[in-house]
Amino acid sequence: MNVRLGSEVANATDDVIVSINPADGSVAGTVEATSPAELDAVVERAWTAFRSSGWPTLLPHRRALLLQKVADGLAAQKESLAQLQMADNGKPLGECRGMVDSAIGTFRYYAGVCETIETDVTPRRGDYLSFTLLEPFGVVAAITPWNSPIMNDATKVAPALAAGNAVILKPSEDSPLLAPELARIALAAGLPEGLLQVVQGRGPEIGSALVAHPGVRMISFTGGTATGRAIGRVAGERLVPAALELGGKSPHIVFADADLDHAVAAVVAGIFGSAGQSCVAGSRLFIEASIYDDVLARVVVRTKSLRVAPPDAPGVEVGPLASFHHRDRVHRFVERAREEGGRILCGGAAPAGDEFDAGAYYLPTVIDRLGPEALTCQEEAFGPVLVALPFGDEQDLIAQANGTAFGLACGIWSDNFKRCWRVGRALEAGSVWVNTYKQSVTSTPFGGFKSSGLGREKGIDGLRLYAQVKSMYFGLHEQPLEVAR
Ligand code: NAD
Hints:
With 485 residues, the chain is of the alpha/beta class. It folds into two domains: 3-246 and 448-471, Aldehyde Dehydrogenase, Chain A, domain 1 (3-Layer(aba) Sandwich); 251-434, Aldehyde Dehydrogenase, Chain A, domain 2. Helix content is 40%, strand content 18%. The protein contains 17 helices and 18 strands. The strands form four sheets. The protein has a seven-stranded mixed β-sheet, with helices on both faces. Strands 7-6-5-8-9-17 form a six-stranded mixed β-sheet, with helices on both faces. Strands 3-4-18 form a three-stranded antiparallel β-sheet, with no helix packed on it. β13, α14 (375-378) and β14 (385-391) form a beta-alpha-beta unit. α3 runs antiparallel to α5 (93-116), α4 (78-89) crosses α5 and α10 (260-272) packs across α11 (292-304).
């Protein structure tokens, strides 16, 4: 395979982070890295903003108004943000527009939640009135990966601000360009200075310094499971809460009684959308043994027909991977499957042709004849790689499908309602899609079982994630309190 090392070369200096456009290897933009030494000042600014801006005590409907203005600002710049996102990480333009829409929707949704969320008046058990309040943590660190920058940034920043916090956002060093735009738009919308700051740089340097900083009171992380574990260890030591949205190896299941046209289309869309760079990608395909050959053949035909093209090409379905080093990692994964005895049914290489030579492209790849214990069936490739496995009965399926460390999502295709219910309940996954796949909206909780994470983002609880409950008692006694006897 023609291997380019563009991003490694371009990311080589300590104080500048260069975003490489994976469609053609050109420079998409540069940002200054934040040094760990500068972090104290960033955290101090965040606390000053938190304490002096009046944000945490601003009435919720007024905070909501500001969040709506951020959404307006994003909407006004939708096209330029989508173009920037495309250059930053290579996703097809249509998908980038969808991500900006998602970020806009997230700010509007949390404006609504902020204004309407209710706390409890708790049952009285004495001469007092007791109720709960949601208090912000103060300064929250939000750390995001490279696959969906503006969308992931909004999923953390909007509810954290809505809950009254100051936020320090650290995007991935592989997609650093969108976070500063979000901060700029928020400032222009009227968010007090210092309430949303961006730090840039490599995870093991500025990311770990941020997590360890004594001024950070809560951590919200999306990224790989190994990184999540490392952050969880530090958070545990510091006793600060950490919400961890991690990796997946999601099973996508087709029973013989399913609508196979819909199932095959969803299987292909569920893994090859975003070139497989989605935490919920349906990367393990389980097909009932009686229809295995037929369904697999149809999946392969459909996969081969996908249009692999530059991200701004008309009709593109699979763009480049987000970086050259990631493309190389995905290829090593496929090579490993080959060594493990896997049969590569399509893909397994970079596409040939002038338009692909300078970019980080990889063909959609389908592999079978691997045992469930093979590395390719256990570990996340985070690329356009699908492994297919047959199953006998429900028991066999559930054992195989639950047989990884992950538990992020799963899909079930069957016309048997009761079976969908049984299997959906038995699968260890935070999201279960029945006769659909990869639906994820800002109003529905999202998160993982097992090594796919801790905590739930999105939905009303997505705001509570960034708040701590305070219980308050107002005394109503007519007599002085007495020492308990
Ligand atoms: P990553 O874990 O390498 O990096 C994620 C972020 O963490 C980046 O900003 C990185 O700079 C930072 N980081 C790295 N090491 C750190 C450390 N020691 N301390 C603090 N921060 C550190 O992940 P990635 O390669 O950017 O993203 C791909 C992973 O993200 C995949 O595993 C994917 O499944 C996962 N992901 C999960 C979700 C979800 O919601 N569950 C969504 C998208 C991506």
